[in-house]
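Entry 14. Structure prediction run on the chain below.
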Amino acid sequence: MKVRRAVGAIIGWRDNPGHVILVKKVKTEDIAKADIEPEWDIPKGGLKGGEKAEQGIWRELTEEVGSTEFALIRKLPFRITFDFPPGSKWDRQKLTFSIWNILVRQGHSNQKPMK
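Output returned:
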C-alpha cells in the first residue's frame, strides 16, 4: 500500500486570539487542469523524500505562509488517516497536525501579499 505522509498546521495570531491563518492555493494534482480555482485551506502538504515531520511542517509554513516567525504550541496526539479514490497516485494519507502561533502582528510581517 502506498501511503502519503503529510503535515498540517493550524496557525493563530499571537496578538489576535480566535483568528487563524488560511492560505489560498491550488492542489498540486490539479495544476495541469485548466479551470481550477484556488481554495482557502490551512497550510499543509506531503513530506518529501526522507523528510521528518518537523522538517516538513517548517518547509510548508515557509512556502505557504511566507514567514519563519512561528512558535509551536503543541502537536496534536492523533493522525487523520483516509483512503484516496481508486486510480490515485497514493492509496492512503496519514496527516499529522500541530498548532502554532505566528509571532508577528497582523499587517507587520514578512508575509507574501495575498492575491
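The first helix runs from residue 53 to 65.
Filed with the rest of this week's runs.
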